[in-house]
Design goal:
The structure holds two protein chains of two kinds. By secondary structure, chain A is of the alpha+beta class. Chain A has helices at about 1-25, 135; strands at about 30-35, 60-65, 80-85, 90-100, 105, 110-115, 120-125, 140, 145-155, 160. In chain A, strands 1, 2, 3, 4, 7, 8, 9 and 10 form an eight-stranded antiparallel sheet that branches. In chain A, a hairpin with a 4-residue loop joins strand 5 (about 105) and strand 6 (about 110-115). Chain A is elongated. By secondary structure, chain B is α+β, with helices and mostly antiparallel strands. Chain B has a single domain, classed as Ribbon (Umud Fragment, subunit A). The chains are: A alpha+beta, B alpha+beta.
């Protein structure tokens, strides 16, 4: 009888912890793994700038805060995580370059376009290997799932993710 | 004695706060993974949803199991304003072709498009007064939140919304 009640208590505790965990993950903070080198050198740096050797063989894990989703207020240079517009199971991490109303340049066809209302223009830091707004087009703000603030793993790379304001690649006339 | 009382109150207060937090977590998890109520109003879905406002239960499972299909009514985040949620009907899933009137009521000019990968084409039932995919194009599937499931208000139209 007591074994049964202790089992019941354990189950209750697990459910409570699960509920709280899921709520915190959805509304406040979560951890995400970074795959690929599209945000190098800010995340997953491929090579060291000085020695040229590969820095780490492990993927970076980052802290994602979700408070920004309350009103969808973002600023230029924020690193965000968003659901891919072509495959809803994939998440991408990129940097916001343009917000609604900005003009951004599309380098490969030498054109400028205005970011539509409710959208943003995202690009990876490593422009050479990044699938971003240059091929996907502007991303609806509603697809953004959080803002990347810190690297939390590996220990040698713990630190803030800097907000870098990069000028959009507007072609010169 | 007084100290012990304060201690008891503190414990009681903490327990109350904790159960309140648990309750809020339950509401959040139910709302984001099972179902949530929505108040629907506006002209874009006439005559299925009338102007005065309907209370509708929206279920989430269909969306993450990818069981939504052509003809279902869904709640989605407007691509033009992330703080706004709208109700529309899915007219085409990815890879399907959709034919729509460019200016309904003015001309019979049609356009046919194929919905790109990972996107859905949504339209209001009232094509004369609806801002939908005809204005902003096919929307990413990630913006779809749930499928309309059951109408609970007004009581005269109480019932399933799946095949309306």
């Amino acid at each position: 009888m007591s074994a049964r009640s202790s089992l019941w208590n354990t189950a209750k505790k697990c459910v409570t912890i699960g509920l709280i965990g899921v709520t915190v993950k959805d509304r406040y903070v979560s951890i995400a793994a970074v795959r690929g080198g599209s945000m190098s050198p800010s995340l997953n740096p491929v090579t060291d700038e000085v020695s040229g050797s590969r820095v780490s063989t492990f993927d970076d894990y980052v802290l994602v805060e979700k408070f920004c989703l309350g009103r969808y207020r973002f600023s230029h240079g924020d690193v965000v995580i968003f659901t891919s517009p072509t495959n809803h199971k994939e998440r991408h991490i990129k940097r916001i370059i343009g917000l609604p109303g900005d003009w951004v340049g599309i380098s490969h066809i030498d054109d400028v376009m205005r970011v539509p209302e409710g959208h943003c223009w995202v690009e990876g830091d490593n422009l050479l290997s990044s699938l971003d707004s240059r091929s996907l087009g502007p991303i609806p703000l509603g697809l953004i799932r959080g803002r990347v603030t810190h690297v939390v793993w590996p220990p040698s790379r713990i630190g803030r993710v800097k907000r870098e304001i990069r000028q959009p690649t507007v072609p010169s006339y | 004695m007084a100290l012990r009382n304060i201690g008891l109150w503190a414990v009681e207060g903490f327990e109350l706060a904790f159960s309140l937090a648990k309750f809020c977590c339950c509401i959040h998890v139910t709302g984001s993974y099972v179902m949530f109520p929505a108040l629907a109003m506006g002209p874009s879905m006439l005559p299925t949803i009338d102007l005065n406002g309907n209370v509708i239960i929206v279920e989430r499972a269909s969306v993450w199991l990818q069981k939504v299909s052509r003809g279902d009514m869904v709640v989605l985040t407007s691509p033009e304003d992330p703080n706004k949620q709208v109700i529309k009907r899915i007219v085409g899933m990815e890879g399907e072709s959709v034919t729509y009137l460019i200016k309904p009521g003015e001309s019979d000019e049609c356009q046919t498009i194929v919905v790109p990968k990972g996107r859905v084409w949504v339209q209001g039932d009232n094509i004369h007064d609806s801002r939908d995919s005809r204005v902003f194009g096919a929307i990413p599937y990630g913006l779809v939140h749930g499928k309309l499931f059951w109408r609970v208000w007004p009581a005269s139209r109480f019932g399933s919304m799946c095949n309306v």
